[in-house]
Amino acid sequence: MTDDTTCSIRGCVRAAGIPLALVALVCLAGTVPALTAGQSTPTISIETDSVAAGETMAVPVVLTSAPDGLAGYQLELTVDDPAVARFENASYPDSLSLTTDPVISADGGTITLEAADLDGQIEPGASDVTLATIQLAGVDGGETQVTVASSQIDADGGGAVEPATEPTALAVSPGAMTEPAVAATEASSPASEPTAESAGTANAAGPTVDDSTGGEQSTTGANGALPIALVLASLATVAALAARTSRQP
């Protein structure tokens, strides 16, 4: 009877082992969504701020999370309206040991960035990873958007990361552009006014110079010189006649 009881207990343990395993699997399946929900989806964040026309601001480009680390990336960012703002330059953090020079389009509306983490500085589970810092310059007052046109991000081990992207609004105020323009105009006005005055003086003096050197005064001078010549000729004639008269006996 002891043997039968022992066997029945082992049988109960074996029989109970199947539902216990199922319960464990169900519990584990319930925890997986919770763990997944606790990990935020990697997102590329472009933290812009307002800027005045004629000024430049530094804008960080951030990967919000890197669950499997970061091996490297290539990004292409665009400004929807380059007449409002444009890319000037970009720099990379020291954690990225291999980088390429930023490539900017002729109109400043597109910039391409590429870098790699060869030293493993960005480990799995890292968050708020700065990929680059871009320089955005305000061109003219208005609003535009900065978007991620394309992205290729690799995790440690070569796995692909597909981050979420959203356009970022950028406001440019025209105040800082108009003030230097006014200052430039004011600075150029004093230089132009003397020029106008001197030109006016030259124009006023021109006729005076022409009158002084004109034919009227020279003609008057010539007319004044004619009577003097006649007087001298008459005196010479009288003197000659007087000399002849004194010589006669």
Give a quick rundown of the structure.
This is Cell surface protein. Residues 210-222 have a biased composition (Polar residues). The protein is of the alpha+beta class and 249 residues long.
Describe this structure in words.
The chain has a domain at 43-173: Immunoglobulin-like (Sandwich). The protein contains three helices and 13 strands. It has helices spanning 2-38, 175-212, 215-247; strands spanning 43-46, 51-52, 56-66, 72-79, 85-91, 98-99, 103-104, 110-116, 126-138, 142-154, 160-161, 164-165, 168-173. The strands form two sheets. Strands 2, 4, 6, 7, 8, 10, 11 and 13 form an eight-stranded mixed sheet that branches. The protein has a five-stranded mixed sheet with strand order 5-9-3-1-12, with no helix packed on it. Strand 7 (103-104) and strand 8 form a beta hairpin. The protein starts with a helix and ends with a helix. The model is unreliable at 1-38, 176-182 and 191-225 (pLDDT under 50). It comes from Haloarcula rubripromontorii. Residues 178-199 have a biased composition (Low complexity). GO terms for molecular function: carbohydrate binding.
Layout: helices, strands, pairs:
Elements lengths: L1 H37 L4 E4 L4 E2 L3 E11 L5 E8 L5 E7 L6 E2 L3 E2 L5 E7 L9 E13 L3 E13 L5 E2 L2 E2 L2 E6 L1 H38 L2 H33 L2
Parallel strand pairs: 1-12, 2-13
Antiparallel strand pairs: 1-3, 3-9, 4-8, 4-10, 5-9, 6-8, 7-8, 10-11, 10-13
GO molecular function, one term: carbohydrate binding
InterPro entries: CBM2/CBM3_carb-bd_dom_sf
Protein name: Cell surface protein
